[in-house]
Amino acid sequence: MISTKLDVKLAFAMLGVAVIWGTTYLGIRIAVHSIPPWFVTAIRQSAASIILLVYLLQRKELAWISWAHARRQMLLSILMIVVANGFTTVAEKNISSGLASLLNSLSPLFVFVGSVMVGIQKPSAKGIAGVILGLLGIAFIFRDGLKDLLDPDYRQGIMIMGFAVTGWSIGTIYIKKHTHKTPNIFLDLFYQFAFSALVQLLLAFVFSGDTDFRTWEIQGLAAVLYLGVFGSVIGFFCYHYVLKRVTAIQASILSYFNTIIAIFLGWLILNEEITIDLLFATALIITGVFITNYTRRENN
After folding, report:
1. CA dihedral 276, 281, 282, 284 (to 10 degrees)
2. How far is CA 172 from the centre of its chain?
3. What is the pLDDT of residues 204-226, one digit of tens each?
4. What pLDDT score does 236 carry?
5. Could you give the CA distance from residue 295 to residue 298 in angstroms, rounded to a whole number?
6. Which pairs count as long-range contacts for 250-253, CB under 8 Å and 24+ apart, including other chains?
């Protein structure tokens, strides 16, 4: 898919995205058990911002970027952190980490459709077949569970995940369509995290301003710290690194590895139920993603 010559850095970056973001669903689920979702995301991105600020100051690389470049980082921050990450966190208050990760695994199909629409990807029979399989996977999830949608909290969680997946997909397409070389990925991420932290902190006080901080559990705060260090700083760095070397769709297929890891960890640690329907739906979606993206052609 990329080249016959092994790129070790790219391989580690892809592994980082697959494994780290697979564990973040578990971390989010643990965190929102006692901490309001928007506070989880605000603290997470604040921690990531502080870590990057210290790193940039030590290396004397903290600098102002142009307004044009700043606007680009703010847009990416809104799409991929405030919307995608924030709404996923909010959704996991009402749905399992496994289901959240499974719905997020649809992003490659969203990216395919969006890439075709904006002209950076050609439509293909494989792509259409993959999208159909993905939709069948979603239909299978709710095959016997339509009654669950009568639960307003569950229904809200599903709808919010739809917004999250859409935001992530649009951000991924934007990065590939408007590729700009940057001398410092960490500096770009600092601006993204700092901006998102401010926005999410405002949302936290708007929607959860009356929270009792004394009810926040130690394991929840530890999970937030993990999300900030690994899920945000390391995970986003790896993802941006990958996006600069492979296509948007190839990068987005890493989400199905996230799904497998998240479902397994949810079952192992949180005792989340793994049903035959869930496994079959996962197989359909992953097969659809694979068919959509598989190619023998090498991109040099």
Report:
1. 130
2. 10
3. 999 987 888 889 999 999 999 99
4. 85
5. 8
6. 250/1, 250/2, 250/293, 251/17, 251/172, 252/107, 252/108, 252/111, 252/169, 252/172, 253/108, 253/289, 253/290, 253/293
Q: Can you read off the two tokens belonging to residue 111?
A: 């990216």
Confidence of residue 62 (pLDDT cuts 50, 70, 90): very high
Nearest CA among 267, 291, 253 for reference residue 21: 253
Against a cut of 0.85, is the pTM above it? no
> For every residue of the chain, which 3-state class applies, written as one string?
CCCCCCCHHHHHHHHHHHHHHHHHHHHHHHHCCCCCHHHHHHHHHHHHHHHHHHHHHHCCCCCCCCHHHHHHHHHHHHHHHHHHHHHHHHHCCCCCHHHHHHHHCCHHHHHHHHHHHHCCCCCCHHHHHHHHHHHHHHHHHCCCCHHHHHCHHHHHHHHHHHHHHHHHHHHHHHHHHCCCCCCCHHHHHHHHHHHHHHHHHHHHHHHHCCCCHHHCCHHHHHHHHHHHHHHHHHHHHHHHHHHCCCCHHHHHCCHHHHHHHHHHHHHHHHCCCCCHHHHHHHHHHHHHHHHHHCCCCCCC
The pair of structure tokens assigned to 9 is 């850095």
What amino acid occupies position 139? A
